[in-house]
Amino acid sequence: MGSSTSQQEFDYLFKLLLIGDSGVGKSTLLLSFTSNSFEELSPTIGVDFKIKYVTLGGKKLKLAIWDTAGQERFRTLTSSYYRGAQGIIMVYDVTRRETFTNLSDIWAKEIDLYLTNQNCIKMLVGNKVDKESERVVSKKEGIDFAREYGCLFLECSAKTRVNVEQCYDELVLKILDTPSLLAEGSSGVKKNIFKQNPPSSDASASGCCSW
After folding, report:
1. For residue 24, what are the contacts with CB-CB under 8 A and spacing of at least 6?
2. Count of domains in the chain?
3. The domain spanning residue 100 has which CATH number?
4. Is residue 162 one of the residues assigned to a domain?
5. DSSP per position, the chain
6. Which GO terms describe its biological process (predicted)?
7. Per the confidence metrics, is the pTM higher than 0.85?
8. Residue 4 is assigned to a structural domain of this protein
9. Which residue has the higher pLDDT, 148 or 40?
């Protein structure tokens, strides 16, 4: 996926959402993709987002990628960010069984509850494959889950950048191949996704498609 030379002109604007438990590497996956770097990051507070301009499939694209907090106390803040998403990336840590179990126990239910776009493309990502010796979730389990829930699937490492770009490439190519999502993402359509400002860091809370 190559960066577009112009950061003003684009054919389509797509909203992508990263979800999953705290500590699975959502923020590092986003940073690795948008800035080609890796950092150990502290947990996201509320919601953050970054913009990435790319050219893919002969189209200039503007990707608004939203990174949500995994902690339960922030979930009431992040529910509204599902609205209008054309792509959702569900991330788990291959070295932590509970982050995989919570995909069906928590995150699938959230998508079913909050997602407004029934044609949204979902991708399942198993992160931290650089820690192969600590793996507890097999690749076959990931494949089986993705097949059951109708997701794309890849394993990757935000640290070594293995398959990081491929995650976004495959997701966006699938969106480009879905007419209804393409129509929504047209640059001629008025967008209000940036009106959803990320909560300030002192904000507190007590807490793709149909599955």
Report:
1. 70, 91, 92, 93, 96, 99, 127, 128
2. 1
3. 3.40.50.300
4. yes
5. -EEPS-SS--SEEEEEEEE-STTSSHHHHHHHHHHS-----PPP-SEEEEEEEEEETTEEEEEEEEEE--SGGGHHHHGGGGTT-SEEEEEEETT-HHHHHHIIIIIHHHHHHH---TT-EEEEEEE-GGGGGG--S-HHHHHHHHHHHT-EEEE-BTTTTBTHHHHHHHHHHHHHT-HHHHHHHBTTS---GGGSPPPPTT---------
6. protein transport
7. no
8. no
9. 148
**Tokens coding 62:** 């503007």
Distant-in-sequence, close-in-space partners of 134: CB < 8 Å, separation ≥ 6: 95
Q: Can you tell me which residue has the tokens 């359509």?
A: 189
In a domain, residue 206? The reply is no
Supply the range of the domain harboring residue 149.
12-185
- Parallel, antiparallel, or unpaired for β 47-56 and 2-3? antiparallel
Q: What pLDDT digit, counting tens, does each position of 5-26 carry?
A: 444 689 999 999 999 998 999 8
Assess whether pLDDT exceeds 80 at residue 88.
Answer: yes
